[in-house]
Specification:
Helix content is about 50%, strand content about 20%. The chain is elongated. The chain is built from ten helices and twelve strands. Residues about 385-390 have low confidence and may be disordered. The strands form three sheets. The protein has a five-stranded parallel sheet, sandwiched between helices. Strands 7-9-10-12-11 form a five-stranded mixed sheet. It has a two-stranded antiparallel ribbon with strand order 6-8. The chain is of the alpha/beta class. The termini are far apart. Helix 1 links the parallel strand 1 (about 5-10) and strand 2. The chain has three domains: about 5-105, Response regulator (Rossmann fold, 3-Layer(aba) Sandwich); about 140-210; about 220-385, Heat Shock Protein 90. The chain has helices spanning about 15-25, 35-45, 60-70, 85-95, 110-175, 180-210, 225-240, 260-275, 310-315, 345-355; strands at about 5-10, 30, 50-55, 75-80, 100-105, 220, 245-250, 255-260, 285-290, 295-305, 360-365, 370-380.
Amino acid sequence: MVPHTVLVVDDEPASLRAVQRALAGHYRVVTANSAAEGLQVLADQPVAMVIADHRMPEMTGTEFLARATTLYPDAIRVLLTGYTDVETVIGAINAGHVYSYLSKPWEPRELQLAVRRGFERYEADVERRRLLHELEQACARARREAEQKGRLLTLAAHELGTPLHVLLNALELIAMLDLPPRPREWLCTARRNGEWLGRGLAQMSAAARVHGDGIRLRLGPVQLAALWASLRVEVDARAASRAVTLVEKIPPDLPAVEADERWLRQAIASLLSNAIRFTPDGGSVTASAHVDREAGHIELAVRDTGIGIEPALLDQVFEPFSAAGGDPFQHASGSLAFGSRGLGLGLAVARAVVTLHGGQLHADSTPQRGSCFTMRLPLLGPAASGANFK
């Protein structure tokens, strides 16, 4: 291992020799008889530590160390001084970024200890910078991978969406024909699977847009009670097929929120379908809402009596394709069968949508007892202060 280089700057030759003797055998020592000579050394070779006498002609040690900082900002700086007044020390620390100072006359062991501790600091700083560089590279790779995933989702949704639309239209035309029972059964199966694929592509497209800054919200007053009522009509039948009870605790006189109704509807629908999927037959899903005028928001909660989420996975539940969504081999985007899972994008899209609306979405869960997803949305203007929205 190559020893660290120490530059010693002092206009007294005896002092230079004393420092050399004290550090001999442990470090590579380079000397300079003046500040100008020391600056030239710094310009010519890398130096890990600079030791300078304070009282030198033409330039003080503090001034020299301040200049040295611009050439080797990472080098450890030590000041030797015959003055112990506070102003000198403070000036050296502020201007020269001095790590340590020794008062003359100094003891060899005292100097050796200061140098050893200085290099410990130097090596720790080198390691910190190395780790920081690796972290920055890892973050850059993660950003690139996220961008690539977004582009892949966008490309897949676009490339598959057009032919799927054509196929679904063709199936609709065929359905108008007077077909025998057996072909009609196959036609119904084809239509169900086409709709299944369409829902998956819609999720992929939504995920690509929300994570690629592709959403432009069309904001307007939205009544959550009315939105929930229309959603319940869609969800009721599918929940009933699983014997899952939907409990409604949505006050009809909720004030309005300013939102994009289409995207907000999709976010709430994701919470409902997720709750039904992971609730065993015979369980229940409860939707509740209340207004916190003091905090200025409406809180909508979807609580289930399902299987819950393991604590180690709870932080990942809003990540795309998260393992918190269950076993990917039980994928079944077209149904709400117990334990089935979609593409793993619904909750990620829901949080992104809520965040874009200036709100928050978080999850609480207990394994084998159920989960609760809570959405907070800011009230619309006057409603936040207690006035009714007209």
